[in-house]
Amino acid sequence: MNERDLESISRFVSQQGAVDLFAYFELDRDAAGPSVEAAIRRRRSWAQGQQANPKYRQTALWLIKNVALCKRALSTERTAYLAYLNATAQAGALEILGNVMDGAVFNRTLSSEREEAVLDRGVQLGLTDSVVEQFIETYLDIHEAFREEPEAAVDIYELLSVSESPTPEAVEDAVRRALAKSGGAGPAATQRRREVRRAARILRSPDRHKEYQRERAQYSAGVPGLAAPNEREAQLDPTVSQLAFRDADTSSTDPPTDGAFMLRGDAPPAPPSLGGRTLPMGTKTGSVRRPSAPQFEIEGDLQRHVRVGRSPVELTFTVRSASENRLHGKIICDRGWLSVTPDRLDPDRKEQVITVTIDPALLTRNRAVALCTVTADRGSRKSVTITAERARIKPGWFVMGALSLVAASGFLLWPQISAKLFPPPPPPPPSATLHVEVNPKAGEVYIDNRIIAAGGRARDIQNLSVKRPVLVRVLLDGFQLWEQEFDLKDGEEKTITPTLILTDPMDYVPEEEAIQGRMDQEAVSRAIRGRSTEFQSCITEHEPGEDRVERTIEMVSHVLSAGHIGSVSFNGPQVPSKGSIHCIKRELRSLHVPIFEGDYDVSHEAFIVSYPNPTPGSQ
Questions:
Q1: What CA dihedral angle connects 401, 407, 413 and 417, to 10 degrees?
Q2: Range of the domain at 320
Q3: CA dist 7 → 2, 20, 69, 78, 81 (Å)
Q4: With contact defined as beta carbons under 8 Å apart, do 566 and 559 qualify?
Q5: What is the CATH number of the domain that holds 466?
Q6: 3-state secondary structure at position 315
Q7: Nearest 5°: phi and psi at 553?
Q8: Quick check: is 481 in a domain?
Q9: Which of 18, 51, 394, 440 fits as disulfide partner to 590, beta carbons 3.0 to 4.6 Å?
Q10: Model-level pTM?
Q11: Could you give the CA distance from residue 484 to residue 239 in angstroms, rounded to a whole number?
């Protein structure tokens, strides 16, 4: 599918109020072939019956002409269409994420907490971590911003359990496992997710990986926790049962006792005291049991857009506790033009309404973005993005003041201006009424280049100007354009009957490579038989006579896939005259029938009409 086809489908489903073509046809995205065929047949049948309905005509025509395109998008080329839908949805989600980044980056710096909030927002928008991380990298490069440096160094190889030269596949598998283990809420889980994502960024970039290895080599020389694996094992050898520290007395020459280590002047400092409590070397302390972290939800949209004037504007959102624990926490907004009330969560309430006040006087730009973050103590964190935009209309009190001034002036000068303020209603302008009856009964009727009717008949066209001529035009495919100007008088009611001149020779003959399609036989037959009265009028006009007999004529027509009749011929012992045939062709060419696939199809119809009796006095 090319870009033009995809844009055509997108415009169509947008006009129909549907999300995509699957939603319009009421199909799942993994629907089987028979289900797709049935849905398309159902919609096509509906479209063929709505071609004459002005309300649905454009929709029906698009469906009938693009049946093959819909089949390709929903079946044979479904993968390409789904990729286009995903790309479109991702572009919209990244546009929203750009607003979030506008509020997250402050003083050209992206803190770890705000980056975590951006990543969480990306997950809510349906984006993967890799897509969001790439978007953050691009955003920081464009805006020349930087990430906040981590507070403590972490060995990324130990964190992800990978070698120092892992393959890209090993990195992705390790990141996926580490993030799965870091699920849940709480400061520890949040910090671990940040470390895992930072490690992923380093290992995915060869330049960053080399820089990290260089810094790690320099740093590990003085920090046992980041030493090389063999050195770290020697430092933490569980076979050592004692540690003897000697004072750094340069005058002492006693050798160290067996089983003890000397703390040299260039060695790292001793670990902090355990407060009198000691553990045997190699003993595990076990996991520390923490109380379950309180969880909460923010009800409503996390993306708020507010127009402000000169007065402060308030907006609210509700924080609802999702557990039985008491909810402690705080609410912080990162811009000075926002103030929040209350700024602490009430632990005794399950639901709390938070009010954020926007002070337009502190806005430095016409449009600004900020984050208000709700952080639970030892719990989760969620943010609301607020976009404030100055209103482009004047505040209402200026309007009220102007109206008050006008009212006061009017009260004082009422006797002089009452006649001008409330003049008597003017007499209605002179106008006329027009009726249009087109022969044949088809075509679009235009009055002064404005379409009035599409069926060849327009009644009660009122309020027409009498100051200038009125231009009437009738447009019908296959016929010469009819137009004429009329001078109307005030109150006049005029009827005009335009007679259209046929320009189509109606001599279509199928070529050898033409494909015979399958038309809607019932609809075509109904349309042709609907003109049987006009056919009889054609024969009566061109073959007059008082004494008449009934005869059967057989009419064979080539119906073209574009939706009209291309030729007609007659079979049987009684054939109409040339004048009658020309008149019948005018009636047939004015018909609009359902379009279909292929090039043409053949219609056979028989009619009983009256002819002049060739032998007067006999029947």
A1: 120
A2: 296-390
A3: 9, 12, 12, 15, 11
A4: yes
A5: 2.60.40
A6: strand
A7: -115, 140
A8: yes
A9: 440
A10: 0.37
A11: 112
